[in-house]
Amino acid sequence: MDRVDGPRVPEQRAPRPGREGGLRFGVLGPVRAWLGGDPLPSGSPQQRALLAALLLRDGRTATAAELIDAIWGDEPPSQALAAVRTYASRLRKVLPPGVLVSESGGYAIRGRPEALDLSVAQELAAAAEKARAAGDRAQARALLGRSLGLWDGEALASVPGPYAEAQRVRLEEWRLQLVETRLDLDLEVGCHAEAVSELTALTAAHPLRERLRELLMLALYRSGRQAEALAVYADTRRLLADELGVDPRPELSRLQERILRADAELARPVEEAAPAPAVSRPAQLPATVPDFTGRGPFVRELSDRLAGAEGSVMAVSALAGIGGVGKTTLAVHVAHAARPYFPDGQLYVDLQGAGARAAEPETVLGAFLRALGTPDSAIPDTLDERAALYRSTLAGRRVLLLLDNARDAAQVRPLLPGTEGCAALVTSRVRMVDLAGAHLVDLDVMSPEEALQLFTKIVGAERVSAEREAALDVVASCGFLPLAIRIAASRLASRRTWTVSVLAAKLADERRRLDELQAGDLAVKATFELGYGQLEPAQARAFRLLGLADGPDISLAAAAAVLDLPTHEAEDLLESLVDTSLLESAAPGRYRFHDLVRLYARACAERDEQPPAERESAMSRLLDFYLATAARVYAIERPGDRTVHHLEPTGYPGKVFTDDEEALDWLHAEAGCILACVQQSLGPGTLRRAVDLLLSSKDLAESGSSSRRYKAATLAARDAAARAADTHAEARARVTLAQVHSTAGLFDQAAVEAERAAELGERTNDPWTLSNAPNELGIIANCTNRYADGETYLLRAVTAFREDGNRPGEASALCNLSRVVASMGRTADAVDLARQGVAVYDELGLTLRLANARYALGIVLTQAGRFVDALGELSQALSIFQENRQRLWEGTTHFRIAQVHLASRRPANAAQHAEQALATGCIGGDWMQANALTLLGRALHSLGQAGRAQACWREALAVYEQSGAEEAVEVRRLLSPLQAA
Predict the structure, then answer these.
(1) N or C: which terminus of the chain has fewer CB atoms within 10 Å of its end residue's CB?
(2) Are 99 and 35 in contact (CB under 8 A)?
(3) How far apart, in whole angstroms, are the C-alpha atoms of residue 27 and residue 33?
């Protein structure tokens, strides 16, 4: 087996019997052995010590004296040699034949290196080091994670003897080095917020390990927590002086100085090296543009293929993309750079494939033959004869062809050489999947950085640097499309009296944007018109209607709803639009428009879609599809909840799911599309359905990933309902908005919305509002310490839910009531109420809502001083929240677990969970973040890290004071002795 103090050197070993297959050993934890997955008895502690000593010798023989010394040290028993032989005999009986061998008066383990977990860990660590050296940080992190994952507690756990103790120390030091390396990689790739929690726990466990302190300072600094980072240094300096009488190492001191200077380089993760620019050499090709920008990966990919054309039959690369994306510019640039590889010439032709009259292949072949020196009299008349002569003429030559703007593969095939050494670059709006042997390249729009660079090259650095934000708005309005950017920049460059802001304002109007993007003979709209004009009627209808949807993309099922077609027919249409580059395939089964193409599609819909009511019908079908499907997800997540029975009816069916996971996947994948549909459907005839779509997709607000967009949609829905005087919709929207505000910790705003919703609910007699509004008011009252009001509201909510037959709603109100009652000092009643809620959820099989109930029960058990029971309930709740991707609830539960650990006098555990709460985010927004900071400060103070504790409390105090929270008084009290000192 391998040693950890150096690379493994393979040695000659005797042949091993086949029966040892499946034998594995473990030393990174308890010393164990398995055969075919079944554990083997490893015997007494001394017998395990013998096995460990042999496993760690890399297959070399250990003498009896060495083994006695390893097991007993300087005080062996009188019968030590006989004991060693007994242990060896027992091991030989449980291990396959030929594994434990006797030789030269000693013993050895013969086996495959990969049979020992330590050897596997070393191999993974070595591979990680190579991956890191090669610049593949993601692979290095994954390999180190796998290596560290092989540990199962303390190495050589419970194995006696001086040898085992020395090995334990060495292996633990190696493990910590691996952890430090992996955390270093975490910071290099920007995962600093996630690393803080782990580093906090590690520094508490290893307070004198300066490298961990250094990494924690860097992680905190990159997380925007500069004061805490400096406090870590102060705590470390004091600890080292008190414990060891030394100063921090120079690296730690230099890091503190850089943090004090707010070094900008320190705040950035390690960046990849910039790609080397391609060399451009003009030849018999169109001139390359002097301001060619970006496209580094595509330039390298195509250049590499052209450079390797010699010796291959023929290299064909086909570039596809929407009009204006820069296909020709890229192809010309690459062709110039590749000219040295094709000394016999470069041929170019515009095949005019996007126009009404594409170039005929025989005409092109005639021009190519003349360019290659063939006299007119020798050029035959027919296509086949010209193609044959063309191939013969190119035989033995190294020529590059640039076939620009091709219509389809049929137009291109006769123009391709047939001999090695030649290559062809083809550009087209159509993906040439039927061009045999072609290397297909899908060209997308520029990155924001590339787009800004191109804009700057045309307009001038001085004008752009003075209005950088406006310039970013311009390139974003251009959808990062190179043609649009070039047109916009050219207009600005020719108008010295315009500022960049003037141009940005003109492009901000979506209805006028395409008209603004034209200069001279260049126009974005004209480019799109060429592609649209070639569509079949069914394709054109799909193009127009799909452009009406506002979402970032659209799924196949949603597109089928818009088009009112069976899924397979819709897919055929969408894929044909992808082939024309007017639509993009974002992922299997998902499609999207470029922003400017979407605007053009909408303009076409307004101009060509007859009757106009078809546009409204298409969007109504899309809303129905989302509402019906979201309601189905809601029902799956909350069996028995009456909410789905109170939703507006839909006329188009939704998706059907096979399991809970698939339903949840759909909801989160469609978040952007759902919320865009809500905001697009706030007019007459669709308003109530739009509001109900918000109700049925409320998991998006609680998950954290879509909270901001959900809030924006809810605000828009409330305002639209108020303008329309739709009391029913307004009440529901206000309840939903109150829930959003509560989640963000904005309790005053939440109370205003919930109180108004309750008033409106009395007018409409809507069961959903009458139960949910008081429930929300009770939650708000509890969070703002108005417990008597909270009890009143929640008792009303319990009654309303019961009258509606909504048992899950009743359970929710009972759990909320339990927290209010606990805060009023009636802990026994609180525990009983929470258990009632748990029982209801358990009976109904409501997994996610059961997590909320266990969360509430965990809180009241904590207040009752039953910490073990509380930790059990909260841990179960945490697992369920994690499985259901409820990120904010997950963070909030970490906070509650931290409270239990702190109350149980386990400050290191409390600090770790508080850090995880801060990194993940919590229900309650900034208020709850301040709570977590306060708790973290208490834990750190208990761990002797007074400086960092003070930094946490100061940050929490700033949040409390800004919101006027009562908790500020307690934090000032915590800070006062420190400030006085």
Answers:
(1) C
(2) no
(3) 9
